[in-house]
Amino acid sequence: MHPDILLNTLPSTEQRLDAMFRAFDGLMLVLDNNGKILDYKAGNDPHLHIPSQKKSSAKFQDFVPAEAWQKYKNALRELHNGSKMVLFEYMLEAFKGKFWYESRLVPFTDDQNIMFVRDITTHKQLSSDELTFAYDKTIESWSQALYLRDQETEDHTRRVTKMALMLGHRLGLPDVDLIHIKRGAILHDIGKVAIPDSILFKPSPLTKEEWEIMRRHPLIAAEILKPIYYLASALSIPRSHHEKWDGSGYPDRLAGESIPLYARIFAFADVYDALTSDRPYRRAWSCADAVEHIAEQSGAHFDPVIAPVFIGMISE
Q1: pLDDT mean values, one per 10 residues, the chain (316 residues)
Q2: φ/ψ bin of 10: left (φ > 0), alpha (ψ from -120 to 50), beta (otherwise)
Q3: Which of 261, 233, 215, 237 is nearest to 160 (CA)?
Q4: Catalytic residue among 71, 182, 192, 202
Q5: Going by C-beta distance under 8 Å and a sequence separation of 6 or more, which residues neighbour residue 59?
Q6: Does residue 279 sit in the same domain as residue 196?
Q7: Which of 66, 91, 125 is the C-terminal boundary of a domain?
Q8: 192 noted as active-site residue
Q9: Which domain, by its residues, includes 58?
Q10: Cβ(131)–Cβ(62) below 8 Å
Q11: How many whole angstroms separate alpha carbon 266 and alpha carbon 270?
């Protein structure tokens, strides 16, 4: 594909925002740096409804108590200091009682932020198993909303998650490990939400300076996800899936078994899928060529014990 043709197919900021609106099933606000509501998707929650006549002038503070507005300002300050996601909770009193909400504030453009809001009142009353299920559904919804810059990114996530789970099963991992692998795989590239479009969608190889920016995304992912306690065991995939067995990877230059097991497993799926998929600057490799490459990189890029298991799985 010619680079000029590819550039014309890249999603605009408006298209990306529209994709997020369609993907996220809760309340979603687009705010400027003063808290003014520029756009929103109301969802089905009557307690956070924004009257249409106020859409052009409303601020977040118009619909929440002073405590929640202060938490929003603190979150905004953290974004300005370099954070890539800030999570906070607050309570609203309404006609039918008290309701708890969770907001995740993430940067979108230089002067706009997106806030994903969900009602957590029921979650506070759930059992541990019910809460885990609810959180997993939220992960899927949130990751889709953040990832849907283009269809291929969503497809990649689905493929590598399935492949990593298959490999984990082949290695005899228990179900609890497979749950953590699934969560980590779904969110493995969440840090790329903070990478500029000019780099993420560049139709030619990146420069050295651009690669330095791109290689920050595992650390950004760790920063986004670390406040979420139930993702602690899954965090090794977003942070460490670009590490290499010989210590030449990033961001921490881990080597051998110091690389977390989940990340070592996921690396096979991620690299294989990347090689066998079209990229703006190259065509997809054949499955045979990708398997040969992974075999050659056993003990260098990949765990030499897991490599034959993965190759056997793909070759069947």
Answers
A1: 42 58 69 86 60 61 86 88 83 76 84 84 65 67 59 75 97 92 90 81 86 91 79 91 96 94 97 88 89 97 97 93
A2: beta
A3: 237
A4: 192
A5: 34, 35, 36, 37
A6: yes
A7: 125
A8: yes
A9: 3-125
A10: no
A11: 6
